[in-house]
Predict the structure.
Amino acid sequence: MPLWIVCLLAFVWAVAGATPKGPNFIIIMADDLGYGDLGCYGHPSIRTPHLDRMAREGMRFTDFYSSAEVCTPSRAGLLTGRYPIRSGMCGDQPRVLTARAKGGLPREEITLAEALKERGYATACIGKWHLGSKPQHHPKHHGFDYYFGLPYSNDMPLHTNLPPGSTGSLNPRNELFDVPLRRNEDVIETTARQDTLTKRYTEEALRFMRENREHPFFIYLPHTFPHVPLFASAEFRGRSARGLYGDVVEELDWSVGQILEGLRREGLAENTLVVFTSDNGPWLTQKLAGGSAGLLRDGKGSTWEGGMRVPCIAWWPGRINSGQITSALACNLDFFPTCLKLAGAETPRDRVIDGIDLGAVLFGNRGPQRDDFLYYRGAQLFAVRVGVMKAHFQTKPAYGKEEAKKHDPPLLFNLAEDPSERFDVAANHSEALAQIARVVEKHRTTLKPSRSQLDD
Amino acid sequence: MPLWIVCLLAFVWAVAGATPKGPNFIIIMADDLGYGDLGCYGHPSIRTPHLDRMAREGMRFTDFYSSAEVCTPSRAGLLTGRYPIRSGMCGDQPRVLTARAKGGLPREEITLAEALKERGYATACIGKWHLGSKPQHHPKHHGFDYYFGLPYSNDMPLHTNLPPGSTGSLNPRNELFDVPLRRNEDVIETTARQDTLTKRYTEEALRFMRENREHPFFIYLPHTFPHVPLFASAEFRGRSARGLYGDVVEELDWSVGQILEGLRREGLAENTLVVFTSDNGPWLTQKLAGGSAGLLRDGKGSTWEGGMRVPCIAWWPGRINSGQITSALACNLDFFPTCLKLAGAETPRDRVIDGIDLGAVLFGNRGPQRDDFLYYRGAQLFAVRVGVMKAHFQTKPAYGKEEAKKHDPPLLFNLAEDPSERFDVAANHSEALAQIARVVEKHRTTLKPSRSQLDD
């Protein structure tokens, strides 16, 4: 090879190397999907071959948590890496942002999209936002180049008077829910055609992926379903033995298959971390229109395990070894520092970040592992897990007007031995209670008063 | 090749061909293992890599039932292919054969071992018998060439006065349970060393397999565990995050791994059907020493799903396609006709056989599929499933003195949509109730009065 070619190649190499090209990230989040709702988590009648394969090719978490028991705070936690109490994105009444709420994720919060955008990432939010529906809270103000989706939950129409109980209906009519579909700042459907949402989110994500295939990208894909009202496309409707709820989950499973296949087709699989999870547990009061927490106690809205322990699967061919099941404690706060580290970005130092880099779990790196997890219900700390021991300071039914029941001493469960939280072992584990008390005390010193955005 | 060698080979071939060599069968049955206790059925803290792999390489059933809600009748059902009501091997008080009981499986019953032995199979029962402990009920009278194991449950000592509650203890002492270990007709340990039972059963099975590698064989391997008292070997004790129950299940998982590896090593894998299942649901009243039914309702002793729907994995490299999950309705009665068909044997025609050949499910053959399943509690029919619909005519807590509650109309659940049996849909499904009533009526016409062997 002539010397000048060698020199040219070396120059090109150096220039390319100077532009850091981190891996791509795709975070797929289902809405109200329960711990027990996937084949690989043991559901008997919902078929999820694509997610099962994703788990076989990657890592399946058994002890992964959403950062809150309901939608809005869980999403705030995921995008900021901070317990939602820090951003004011949680509250006791209401517990999520309503359709007319003026509040939203404060501008001073730094989202994962914002931090990655600074590193040159192309960023998209495709799906349900639910972090503020007013213009000042638009995803574009939080680091997203592109947005396609609903501003909040699909059961939050602005104008329609819904017949009682209709949100949980297994035969919902689209026109009853005038939830707008937006593309960037435009409302492209005043009443979103919900039966094709999963399909359209998938197409949007695939398009964004293709358009940015030469470029690092971050796709945040928070699906609208299986939150009620349940809509599946014509192809999926009537397909699952589990009924409409199963149809909807099986369509999400198809969507995941499309995304992974798209990555393989574009040659991006080996350079993309994909995670799949849920924003909170199953909405049990929706009966057949809600999911299952499997062997876990209770569901969405509660700080029992069924409310916050959710499926999580991580996939990155060549980087995450296939076929792993991990019981490492982890939660959706951890995506923030994990992705920033992989992108070569600094984690913000001017604020408390509650997330932990998951590198040690995902790649077997050295590094810290998560020791504890805090279960907030709205703005109140209800329970804390340290190692496998979980203390409940308060418990309260997921929904309804019943007052919280305080526990002193706290209820204590060994979640590894007793995942269904049946046997209180507080009497024999004073040292665990003391350790949990220290974690709470330390956490409290880091809290600053914040106004709830949800009251607004 | 000289002509005489060709002739000799042809002769040997013809002779060999004249001796039908069916496939080998290994039926592994855990004791009191729940629907939710394996990794591939969704347990978060019990690790079962060998059973998970067996499922990946074979077929996992989501809707598989034991033929009874407790030990003795379930085993009678498995070995005879007949609901235990037909052989008198069920009863209401007691519900299983006690250690001192004189009764046992009647000689006129034809077991799978007996029928296979007639076809030239070598047969072994390695593990817990529990179909009669008196000499006249010995496995050798039911077609087993070889027997190694306990005559009944491991919590049924003959002489010791147990401290109250000790059966469920998580720290059982071996000497408290003077359950004999037998090899053929000899008692080789008057108080079985239970902590090495799983290991020794495994070794016995591997030895039998090796010794009969040139010969079709049937190994019935009904493990003693995870029935309480729980014992794991030194290698497994303290290994599972789930505690001793997890240690015991993980040792069973190891055992399955050894069996499959043994088959591969001996070159027998492609000629052996292996199934793994449980005799009934988890013994929930044993608390941490009992298992989990996952999302299913209730456990051992009840006719809710958790009492009788159990894990089942079928494996036969080259015959059963890998990675299949089936929701086909099946039960342990079905092994009898399935194995006989594969062995080229006739199913007895002089009696009712309730089992169905599973060939259509396992191999995708044409053939009948199971349409219904009857849930007996002792000698009484409590519930019936037809398709995905299950009617409860009576319900009763798994244990305790509470009377059965009769339901007229029956409670009705759609098990595919509602596997946890939460929502009675009887009001809207009179046709399903009528269909179920016809199945019951037809079943009743086939019943002949039989004396319970359990009262004796």
